[in-house]
DNA sequence: CTGGGGAAGGGGCCC
DNA sequence: GGGGCCCCTTCCCCA
C-alpha cells in the first residue's frame, strides 16, 4: 500500500480532490510515496535539493511587481540570475532540479511575441478556435499583416468554426505591441527550431477516419484510435485508480493521475509535494522569486507563463471573453462567469465552453 | 463587488 | 511508453 502524503484538504475541496488543493504541510514529512518514475533517480526525492541556504535563495531576489509598474521599468529583468543558486548548480545535470536554460524565445521582451496573437480579442466564445489558431491550424492570423496594429485595432469578423478552413499558416509575430508605432518589431528568433515550428505550422495532420480528430503525428493518431476514439475499434480497456473513482483508458494516463495522489515531487524548501516535476519547478520559483516571463507592455514579470498570458489580456481593450448580451469583454472566463451570475442586464450569458 | 495575480492540475504533443 | 514541455483552465486570494 502506498503511503499517502500527509496533507490536509482545505475547505470546500471535497468536490474537487485534485484541483488546487491548498494543503497544510506537516512538520514531519511522511514517508516517500511510491516512485512511479522509470528514471534511475528522481532528484526531487534524493535530497540533493536539500542543501538550500537562505543565501542561495537570495541569489535571485523576488521581482517586485509594484516597482516594475509604478516606476520606470528596469532595462530588462533578468530572466535568470547569471549564477544559479548553489542547490541548482549541484543538480545542473538535471532538468528537474533546475530548469533548462530558457531559450531567447521566452526571454523577457521577446517571448510573448509568439503568444499575444493567440487571443485575437474579436473572437469571443471561440476558445477552441483560438486553440486551433494557436496550434497553427487557423486561417491567416488576424495579425498577419505587417501593420503592427495593436490588438484592439484588429477587427476580424467572427467566422463559424465549422466554416473556417484548415489552413496552416505561420503566426506573424510582428504585430503585438500595443504601441507599435513606437516599438520596432524584434527580429525573428533564430533559436526556434525551425523544422519543428514549421512542422507545426504547416501541420501535416493525420486524421481519424472515425471521428475526424486530427493529430500532428501518426503515433498520436494511433494512440487516439487505440485508446481514446469512442467511434474507433480499439480495445476499450479501462484502468481505474485505487485511490479514487477515476477511470482512465490508458495505463499512462492512470499513472499520471496516480501521481496526483502520491505527489512524488517534493519541495525541499517547504516540503510541499507535487505530482509532476515541472509543477515543482514552478513552485520553487515562488521561493526563489524567479520570474522569467515579463510583459513587454509594462515590464511586469511573472513566474508562470500562463499567468503572463492572462496578464496580457489586461492590456487589450477588447478581451478574450465577451458577454453576448452586453458585449462587455473580460480577460478571464471566470470574470465572465461572475458577470453572468451577477446578472447581466441582458441575461442569458452563455458559458464559452458550451458554444461550439 | 470587480478585476487581476498567484498557484496548481490536466491533456496534448513531441522527443 | 515515458518524460518533458506547452497550453488552457480553474480556484483562491487580494487590492
TrEMBL record:
InterPro entries: Snail/Krueppel_Znf, Znf_C2H2_sf, Znf_C2H2_type. Signal peptide: none annotated. Residues 72-85 have a biased composition (Pro residues). GO terms for biological process: asymmetric neuroblast division; central nervous system development; epithelial tube morphogenesis; positive regulation of transcription by RNA polymerase II; regulation of neural precursor cell proliferation. SMART domains: ZnF_C2H2. One of its GO terms (cellular component) is nucleus. It comes from the Eukaryota. It is found in: Nucleus. The keyword Transmembrane helix does not apply. The keyword Nucleotidyltransferase does not apply. Its main location: nucleus. One of its GO terms (molecular function) is zinc ion binding. Residues 206-228, 239-262, 265-292, 293-320, 321-339 form the C2H2-type domain. Residues 174-183 have a biased composition (Low complexity). Keywords: Developmental protein, DNA-binding, Metal-binding, Nucleus, Repeat, Repressor, Transcription, Transcription regulation, Zinc, Zinc-finger. Residues 24-87, 170-199 are annotated as: Disordered. SUPFAM superfamilies: beta-beta-alpha zinc fingers. Belongs to the snail C2H2-type zinc-finger protein family. This is Escargot/snail protein-like. It comes from Asbolus verrucosus.
